[in-house]
Amino acid sequence: MNVLRNSRALHFNTTIPSQSIAYLNYVVPFNYFCTVNSTHLDQNPEKSYSISAISELIAKQHWGEIKGILKEKQNPNEILNELFDSEVNPRVILSYFNWVLRNCGFSWDIHVFFKLFRLLGNGRMFGEVRKLLNVLVQSGKFSSSEFFHAISLYGDSARENSVLVDMLVQTYMHGNKVELGFEAVRRAWDYGFRLSVLSCNPLLSALVDEGNVKVMEDVFKGMIRRRVRPDLKTFNIVISGFCKAGQLQKASDLLEDIKAWGLSPNAVTYNILISGYCKKAKVGKMYKADALLKEMVAMNILPNEITFNTIIDGFCKDQNLPAAMKVFKEMQNQGLKPGVATLRHLQYLD
Fold first, then answer.
1. How far from 317 is each of 58, 75, 150, 279, 332, CA to CA, in Å?
2. Is the pLDDT of residue 235 over 50?
C-alpha cells in the first residue's frame, strides 16, 4: 500500500516511565506447564542456557524444550527481553511472542507490543505489523484510549505514529468494528496524527451501510480539514450516502468538487447519481436522471448495462413509456442487454 511504501520504517521509543507500569501491567497466569510466581518477575537468576541456544530452539520450533526452560525461568519476559537485546532475527522474537500468547495463557503488556512494532517496522516487515495489530485488537484487552495513551508514551515521531494509527483504523474496519474505528479516527485527529484514504474510506463506507449519513458527512469534512486527500472512491462513497438519504442536491454538488480536486467522475459515479434520482426523486423529476445520462455521454464516459437498466426502470416507474423505450432502443444499439426487471416493466407498460 502507498501509505506503507512511502513511509519510513517505524521507530518507537520503548523507554517505560515507572508511573505508567501500574495501569498497563496485568498478567494472566500460565497454565499447568508455565506457572508464574510473581516473586520471580523482577529477579535474574543465574542463567542455565545461552540466548543463542534459545533462539535456535525457537527458530526450529522445538517448543517442548522451550517449555522446560520456562519451567526453570518462570518468567517469559526474561527470555523475550534477552531476545530483544541479542539482536536476533525479528521473526524469531515474533515466533516466541506468538507461541507464549497462544500456549501459556500469558498476556503481554502493551509496551511489549510497541517494542515489537518498532522492531518489525525497522525491518520493514509491515505485513507482520498488521498481523500484530490484529492480535492486539482481537484480544480485546486494550481499549482505543489505552492504545493512544501508550503511543503517546512509547511512540516516536508523529509521522511514524501516524502510519501505525492508520493501520490500526484499517484493522478495526477489516474486523467490522465500526464504532471502534470511528473512535480511533476521532482520537487520531485529537492527537494530531495524519490518516490516509486507506483508513478513512472503509470507515465512510461502513457508515453509509449503517445509514449513519450525518457521521459520514462529519468524517468526510474532517478529512478535508485535515488535508487527507480524497480519491474518487471517497467521493463515490459519500455521493452514495447522500443519495441513500435522499439528499440529492448534496450528492450532485460533489460532481463539481470531484473536478476541483483534479479528478474525473467515472461510470460508477454517474450510476450512483442516476440511481439516486430514479429511486428518490418525486414523480416527474426523471429529467434530472436523463440529464445526467446525457452529461455522461458528453464526457465520453460510456454508459453500461447498469446505467441503462436503472434509467429505464426509473422512466417505467414514472409512467413515461416513450422515454423508457427511447433509452431501451439506445441500449440495444450499443449491444447491451436489459435486465429481467427492466423487461418486466416494459412488457407491463406495453
1. 68, 71, 57, 9, 20
2. yes
| Digit-coded pLDDT (tens) for 261-317 | 999 999 999 999 999 998 875 666 788 998 999 999 999 999 999 999 999 888 888
Give all strands (DSSP E) within 96-208, no chain letters. none
For 248-314, give the DSSP string. Answer: HHHHHHHHHHHHHTT----HHHHHHHHHHHHHHSPTT-HHHHHHHHHHHHHTT----HHHHHHHHHH
pLDDT in tens, 155-171: 777 888 999 999 999 99
- Gap between the Cα atoms of 8 and 168, Å rounded: 17
Q: At what angle do helices 144-154 and 178-191 cross, to 10 degrees?
A: 30
- Rounded CA-CA distance 266/260 in Å is 15
pTM for the structure as a whole: 0.79
pLDDT digits (tens, 9 = 90+) for 104-135: 878 899 999 999 998 898 888 999 999 999 99
Residue 166 three-state SS:
helix
Sequence-distant (6+) residues with CB within 8 A of 24 are: 109, 110, 111, 146, 150
Nearest CA to 275 out of 234, 246, 232, 235 is that of 246
